[in-house]
Amino acid sequence: MNRRPFDPRLLRRVPAARRDLAVLAVLGGLTALLVVAQATALATLLATAVDGRLHRPALAGFVAAVAARALVSWGQGTVAARAAATVKATLRGDLLRAVGRHGPTWVAGQRAGQLATLTGRGLDALDPYFTGYLPQLVLSVTVPLAVLARIVLADWSSALIIALTIPLIPVFGALLGWQAQAATERQWRRLSLLGGHFLDMVAGLPTLRAFGRARAQVDVVRRMADGHRQATMRTLRIAFLSALVLELVATLSVALVAVPVGIRLLGGGITLATALLVLLLTPEAYLPLRAAGSRFHASMEGLTALDEALTLSATPAAAATAATPLPAPDGRGEIRFEGVTVEYERTTALRDVTLTIRPGERVAVIGPSGAGKSTLLNLLLGFVAPTAGRVTVDGVDLAEVDLDAWRRQLAWVPQRAHLFAGSLADNIRLGVPDAPDTTLARAVRDAALDEVVAALPDGLATVLGERGHGLSSGQRQRVALARAFLRDAPLVLLDEPTARLDSASEAVVLAATRRLVAGRTALLVAHRPALLGDADRILRVEDGRVTELTPTPAGKAS
Amino acid sequence: MSDALDRPDDQGRPDQPVRAVPGGVSRDGTTPAGRDPGAPTPAEANPAELLPGGPAPTAAVPATGATTGARAERTVLRLARPYLGRLVGAGLLAAATEFAGLALMATATWLLMSAAGRPTLDRLTVAIVAVRALAVSRGVFRYTERLAGHDAVLRMITDVRARVFATLAARRDGAAQRTGDALSRLVSDVEAVQDLLLRVLVPGAAAALVSLLAVGGAALISPPAAGVLAVGVLVAGVALPALATGLTRRAADEVAPLRGALAVDAVDLTHGAADLAAFGAASAEGRARRLARLERRLAAAGFAVDAAGVLISGLTAAAVVAVALRAGVGAVLVGVLAVGTLAAVEIALALVGAARQRAQLRAGLARVAALLTGPGPAPAGPVAGTPAAGTPAAAGRTGAVAAGPDVRFDGVTVRYRAGAAPALDGVDLDLPAGRRVAVVGPSGAGKSTLAGVLTGAVRPDAGRVTLDGTDVAGYPPEELPRMIGGLLAEAYVFHASVRENLLLGRPGADEAELTAATRAAGLLDWVRDQPAGWDTVVGEQGGQLSGGQRQRLALARALLAAPAVLVLDEPTEGLDPAAADAVLASALAATPAGHSVLLISHRLSGLAELDEIVVLDAGRVVQRGRHADLVAQPGWYRDQWLLQEAAERGYLALTPTP
């Protein structure tokens, strides 16, 4: 975990925030001066009160200093919030662009959910960091310096006490921090385990209920929650100790300064104004350091989110294409896999695969799940790059072409198409945003989506909810097919388009699929036998190896 | 678990913000409890679609005002009653901490200003001792206060978690599926209760108490000065918090929809990344920038409240000095009043942070309260009119039953929404003990609803399901699963070992039983391949398993549970045809002879051995009979069978080229 209070990458990656951060530093210096001015005015005011009179200039000075501090504090908050908003917006943009740059397999590997949370709510944890911690960090440098400088001028012996005790705060903080760290982190792992347990239990409630274990589990939840409490308390007893020591350093320093100063006043060795100034300023020297320390922990979540965001969005693209990508080959060209091996982190998806797909061929791919069928498609989509070997179209290596241009030659029907929050028409127009209505209508008809559209309240304008609620799996697949029809690309890739459909929906989708592949080169992963009838060739993938199958007459007959 | 309070290294909760340190006279730089982050950042977005308990009771929360919020707080606080003593203790300790800080500065000022008059040293001794004692006691008070507060609150949270879980467990609306996001929200909602006490009520009460004491103390010195202080404290502790509450709410209302929309965008752009890439569609960042603009604008308003706080504390101090001098108060006490005023207003300003925090907790608390007060848990004991112990129910778990109950569906009709087409429409079905029946039909025909009615998860709108003549609706929720259960839709795999996941089916099962069930589900080889064997922990929501392995694990668990009536809802989903046929056959073979089976499937293979096949279409039984009969007569079954058979035979006839 990154425990540095400020991530220097921030300045590099979000240049727009530099000015705000500079303003924040200036305001921090201003605050320090005003702290000194305010204390000086108040000390003068009270010292002259001994004579029973109101020192009007001092009162005016005090009020002016207070007003200026109010203004500066408003400025600090506003600028810090601006910086937070700027950084969040920039990082969100960077993250989303990184998703586009790296492609979907990277997203899946990095867990799309985590990325979505980070982009959505996760980065909002930066607010307390920017508006709470960062200004305090600035103050913890400027204020002690200004206070010390002022007290040195007024009374060097008090300044000495402060100068000697102030470093105790970071030193003690660090010592206790290290001391507690090992214990804390061991506990913390346990704590999150216990916390996660509650979530797991709630998520699995329907299953617990189905086995009649839900009620019995209430006791388990209570026991785990109680364990959580005891573990937390054990940790807190240590964690709060460090706060106690730091608190004592600060309060005892006030006593250490005030009592000798009072005794020197008795002897006439110091003026009342100076003594009061020292008393009023002493606590100010400790405050920002301690405040920054305590807020550091509150902003840890934000720092972690920041670290994640900066790291994720900076990861260089795995499949780095050449500096000047070649123009994409024609999708009607011959496709060759030459000794292609694809290794993922834990498994090898394809081993030394060599095959050729001739233009206009309809090739079906079968095999057990996890055998590497989808990887074949992902290679053609440019979602994964071969670990060894190469994939060429018309003799051009796909690793060297402009992938966006190449993908324009493809239409893809995934196992489960994502439906975007938007109208049905926009969802279908995904690949061709400016498709005219007549073309759209034809795609809808070809995909057998027209009866679905007719049943929707607003037809094609019906807004599909978050994640496309409101459409069944079969209807969703027809939307995916409509996208592919509208795309009208020479090469069609279908990944188990009927995997989750019952026979009736399957028949409809199959008929539409047949219309789609007619006259195009097609590679279709078949989970169900029904797709095989129309294939010119059938490939079998097992354990990363590809073999050719010849359908027997029985297969041809259908 | 995003909660900072739980965090062991939580040094101080958010400390005094910048604004809370008026010139040179603030307290001694110690950490006050529960100061707000000082950042008037917009409240969390709480999009209604993420509500945990289904939309009904809480959907109106964001729109309704303070009354709902207050009611929710009362509901939640009722749970604090057993720990009231501890909480009051923590509050008093918090007040003592704040008071010690105030007294430290006031006494030190008195010491210096008195010393200026050159009295003898012994007149100052008491003050000197007091300054030292206050300096030490403040830290000690703080330490004990935090421990006491956290202890009380964590005890209460234990209760809340158990209560929330019990309420959810007792609910019958199993259909209400929760998204992962709504679930983690539920967890953080429960933790909002913790924040309410530790960050709002305890420090708020302490601040109010110390403010009162300060005004009272000032009144002893000079009533006019106390009047001025009272005004300052009221502005800092009442007016500004009210303003902060209003601004926080407005910010939340304005920001929440935008944040919700952004979250949807984020989901679309990540989960739909493949679709976007394949189709070359561009992503939109406009929303993030609009949100940033709005946040900037709102922050300017929010921090104005903090600036006003700084101004108020200074102005009050200045006014107190002027008024006290005019009233002829002695210089020493004027100094004490001035320094005390700065500290007292400062303490009152803690209420601004508490108010903000409270406004942000509103939505979460309302949801927790709705959960706790919603359709409450059924009484723990057996429901009146249900079969007493000694019925087959009690014996079901031991697996020693020779024959299960006779199950009967009588004209069962289920309608999920008024006006919609019924999911089940007058279904009659007999499932005598030991009979094996398959339910097939197109998706959406009502197959899973049928399983839901049988297991008691769905209540029929008309008709009834009986076990040996007793309505299933009458069985207590814990009894029914011993007789009826199995592999239902959305079987969940817990973040636990394979063994623990399996034992859920039958808690006392031994190794041999685990092995048998796992072998029947075709998962035994995988388990044996794992270094940790049965103790292999399957990841978060079974993430370490492939879809097929997960399905097999769930099936093994159902087979291990071996209820007298075994329901298998698409047990081979996600498996390829050959594996599906093998698993189905071994699962059926592993089911004891006397037990009934209700198999739901969209595949028609492997059904020849079953006693009866029921074809559902649009909620009605359209065909029934044995496989051989159904294949012989025209109808949906025969059409589908021929289609599938033709395809599968072609598939099975495939052989590698020599």
Q: What layout of secondary structure does this protein have?
A:
The complex is a heterodimer of chains A (558) and B (658).
Chain A (H helix, E strand, L loop, with lengths): L8 H5 L2 H34 L6 H47 L1 H6 L2 H9 L5 H29 L1 H10 L2 H36 L1 H6 L3 H54 L4 H27 L1 H15 L20 E9 L4 E10 L4 E5 L6 H9 L6 E6 L2 E2 L5 H5 L2 E4 L8 E2 H5 L8 H10 L3 H6 L7 E2 L8 H15 L3 E5 L7 H15 L3 E5 L11 E6 L2 E6 L2 H5 L1
Parallel strand pairs in A: 3-10, 3-11, 6-9, 9-10
Antiparallel strand pairs in A: 1-2, 1-4, 4-5, 7-8, 11-12
Chain B lengths: L65 H13 L5 H32 L5 H50 L9 H42 L1 H49 L1 H7 L6 H41 L4 H43 L18 H5 L10 E8 L9 E8 L4 E5 L6 H9 L6 E6 L2 E2 L8 H4 E4 L10 H6 L7 H10 L3 H6 L17 H15 L3 E5 L7 H14 L5 E5 L11 E6 L2 E6 L1 H6 L3 H17 L2 E2 L2
Parallel strand pairs in B: 3-8, 3-9, 6-7, 7-8
Antiparallel strand pairs in B: 1-2, 1-4, 4-5, 9-10
Helix pairs in contact in B: 1-8, 2-3, 2-4, 2-8, 3-4, 4-5, 4-8, 5-7, 5-8, 7-8, 13-15, 13-16
Main location (chain A): membrane
Membrane topology (chain A): Multi-pass membrane protein
Subcellular location (chain A): Cell membrane
Question: Mean pLDDT across all residues of chain B, rounded?
Answer: 78
Strand order in the largest sheet of chain B? 6-7-8-3-9-10
CATH architecture of the largest domain in chain B: Up-down Bundle
Q: Helical content of chain A, roughly?
A: 55-70%
Tally of strands of chain A: 12
Class derived from helix and strand content of chain B: alpha/beta
Radius of gyration of chain B: 34 Å
Superfamily (CATH H level) name of the largest domain in chain B:
ABC transporter type 1, transmembrane domain
Written account of the structure:
The complex is a heterodimer of chains A (558) and B (658). Chain A has 558 residues and is α/β, with parallel strands linked by helices. Chain A has three domains: 183 residues, no CATH class; 114 residues; 223 residues, P-loop containing nucleotide triphosphate hydrolases (Rossmann fold), CATH 3.40.50.300. Chain A contains 20 helices and twelve strands. In chain A, the strands form three sheets. Chain A has a six-stranded mixed sheet. In chain A, strands 2-1-4-5 form a four-stranded antiparallel sheet, covered by helices on one side. In chain A, strand 11 and strand 12 form a beta hairpin. In chain A, helix 3 runs parallel beside helix 12 and helix 16 packs across helix 18. The longest helix of chain A is centred in the middle third of the chain and has 54 residues. Chain A is elongated and about 110 Å long. The N terminus and C terminus of chain B are likely disordered. In chain B, the strands form two sheets. Chain B has a six-stranded mixed sheet with strand order 6-7-8-3-9-10. A four-stranded antiparallel sheet of chain B has the order 2-1-4-5, with helices on one face. Chain B has 18 helices and eleven strands. In chain B, helix 2 runs antiparallel to helix 3, helix 5 runs antiparallel to helix 7 and helix 7 runs antiparallel to helix 8. Chain B has 658 residues and is α/β, with parallel strands linked by helices. The longest helix of chain B is centred in the first third of the chain and has 50 residues. Chain B folds into two domains: 301 residues, ABC transporter type 1, transmembrane domain (ABC transporter transmembrane region fold), CATH 1.20.1560.10; 174 residues, Rossmann fold (3-Layer(aba) Sandwich), CATH 3.40.50. Classes of the chains: A alpha/beta (558), B alpha/beta (658). Chain A: This is Thiol reductant ABC exporter subunit CydD. Chain A: It comes from Micromonospora solifontis. Chain A: Its main location: membrane. Chain A: Keywords: ATP-binding, Membrane, Nucleotide-binding, Transmembrane, Transmembrane helix. Chain A: It is a multi-pass membrane protein.
